[in-house]
Amino acid sequence: MKQPPSTPAAPGDHPGAEEISEFAEGLLPAHEADALSQHLDACAACQDVRASLDTVGEQLAALPAPARIPDDVAASIETALAAEQVSRETQEAAAATPRNVRAVPRETPFTRPQLRSGRRRVWLLALAAAVVLGIGGVAVPALLSSSPEDRTQAGEEHRLREHVQSLVPAASRSDDPGLTTKQSPGTLADKAGVMPSCVREALGRGARPLAVDPRYPYEGETGYLVVLPHGPRTPDGEPEKVDAYVVDRVCVQDSTKAGKVLLHRIYPRR
Amino acid sequence: MADARGEAREGLRDADDRQLLSLHIRGDPEAFGELVRRHRDRLWAVALRTTGDREEAADAVQDAFVSAYRAAHTYRGGAAVTTWLHRITVNACLDLMRKASARRSTPTDDTARMERLLEPHESAAVPAEQQDLQRQLLAAMAELPAEQRAALVLVDMQGYPVAEAARILDVAVGTVKSRCARGRARLLPRIGHLRPEGAPAERNRTAGPSVPPPRDAAGASGTREGEQQP
């Protein structure tokens, strides 16, 4: 959709609407703006384009504004946040527990793109019901826990480090090294040690991940975060450092695309 | 009112957004709900207009609030809380739209969805000719690259200052202006009948049309390419 670089309009030659629009926004370099301004002075047709561009803006402003947020949408937000609240309180209560089942986050139901909101809300209601009924004491926090999704602030690096270190805390090193043994009943942990094949290919490493986050927000996109042991294991069975990879997750959804490592960092375990 | 937790505590109503956020971080169970009540209508409008789809907008706003709930501790106070919330919401919209555009087969889907946004009650009081124009504009909006659409939603439709739109979109002011300028130029053919006779919408001097024909050239592939631009 790119045009050739714009040049000053020659006499008898009309500038494009896009150029006039950029001129109207003051985006053209001075010499081009001067030339276009002169052309506009003499060309009624282009003056009309210029006026019509203003009309576009006015018409957009005049479109009827959406009403207040619909009740059902507001209610589903309330439900989602109530589930978050439960998750937060449970996590705080579990903070003293050294063997933390949250070492590997699961895909959170309400952030999975495949699920349409209708089903998602049912999920949440089911979760809320489970909480109310006092069942699934371990499973519910494990389902709800997920990465912080901050797509907004600087400090991606810091955020990644914090996230990785929270995923593989040093406290977990007394656990069995293999993920599969780390599962708690009733969670979705069976997915944890399995990377999509395109992610594994992108990494060029077949090692079993210490943790994965299938939906890690990275630079405005969603990446697939994999944490692997860095270097040989130390005698106590756990490495001191980990490799963190953020892989473009487009390959997970589209098998024709190859996986690509967006970021690789080495962090010490905390 | 759909609030499960009813009205906010007295103290929360007096707190400003930043205070609410820090109350939330310190564990206050109601502070975030008050933030939601304050901002959800505006964020809904932005999401609905950006995605052009009720279900997608609902998902985006919910995802955004959940993200903000979790990431509250990363808010650094550089921008207003409302800017931060808008940014998360617009990102959630663009995220969902990218995924949806992979699922959707033709741009006509988008067009039909956008047009449905006008019906039924919102357009009741508007004259027929105006309604037709609005329909055309919404249809054309659906065919714009997502980033141009997001910029036009914030600046032209919602009336936010360009500087605020730039903070929300996390791009330079000039980038917002440029996205708006190019977006308006692409919408221009849709309001052709408002202009006097003989206006030269098609008389561009370059071979590559800066104003693409309404339907064929501005199809799905164009939209997707547009989204890839830096």
Structure write-up:
The complex is a heterodimer of chains A (270) and B (230). Chain A has 270 residues and is α+β, with helices and mostly antiparallel strands. Helices cover 41% and strands 12% of the residues of chain A. Chain A has a 4-stranded antiparallel sheet. The radius of gyration of chain A is 27 Å and the shape is elongated. Mean pLDDT of chain A is 68; it is low at 1-11, 98-122, 131-154 and 171-192. With 230 residues, chain B is mainly α. The longest helix of chain B has 23 residues, at 81-103. Chain B is elongated. Chain B starts with 9 loop residues before the first helix and ends with a helix. Mean pLDDT of chain B is 78; it is low at 1-6, 119-123 and 195-230. Classes of the chains: A alpha+beta (270), B mainly alpha (230). The interface between A and B is large, with 80 and 92 residues.
Quick tags:
heterodimer; A: 270 residues; alpha+beta; four-stranded antiparallel sheet; 9 helices; 4 strands; 41% helix; 12% strand; elongated; disordered N terminus; B: 230 residues; mainly alpha; 63% helix
Describe the secondary-structure layout:
The complex is a heterodimer of chains A (270) and B (230).
Chain A: H1 17-24, H2 30-42, H3 44-62, H4 71-94, H5 117-133, H6 139-144, H7 156-167, H8 197-203, E1 211-218, E2 221-229, E3 241-248, H9 250-253, E4 261-268
Antiparallel strand pairs in A: 1-2, 2-3, 3-4
Helix pairs in contact in A: 1-3, 2-3, 4-5
Chain B: H1 10-14, H2 17-25, H3 31-51, H4 54-71, H5 81-103, H6 107-116, H7 128-143, H8 146-157, H9 162-169, H10 173-187, H11 220-228
Helix pairs in contact in B: 2-3, 3-4, 3-5, 4-5, 5-9, 6-7, 8-10, 9-10
